[in-house]
Amino acid sequence: MNSIASTFPDATAVIAAYHSLNLVGGKRVPVGVGLDVLNPATGAVLGQAAASKATEVDAAVQSAKAAGGAWAAMPARERGKRVASAGRALAEHAELVAQVLARETGKAIRTNAGARSRSPLTSWNFTAGWGRNSKAKPSRSTRAC
Fold it and tell me: What is the pTM for the complete model shown?
């Protein structure tokens, strides 16, 4: 069993792991207030999303800006490799992602949520391929995205 499957055996565990948290700089950062996330098909409360204050949003934006500079300076081929790696990880766990999406959207996995969990792969694979094939020099952009 890989580490993702042992950490998150099912969609309920994924949702619980991010209860009222932001991801900032690769770390889970708790916030003081959460917003109920409901399954629209059943009305059941799934968990709570972070209701971030302006200071928490500012901290996340600053973290993204800091990471964006390093990302922009990285050669396109290396960025492509990293995007491809993220895409492979998503593909490996597409069923778990589909289960989370099904609960959040109230849609059936086989008819909609499953397809939604796989759709980013097309974009990620295209982007990764562009980076691997690019001979472009690192960008001088200071934008985070």
Answer: 0.64
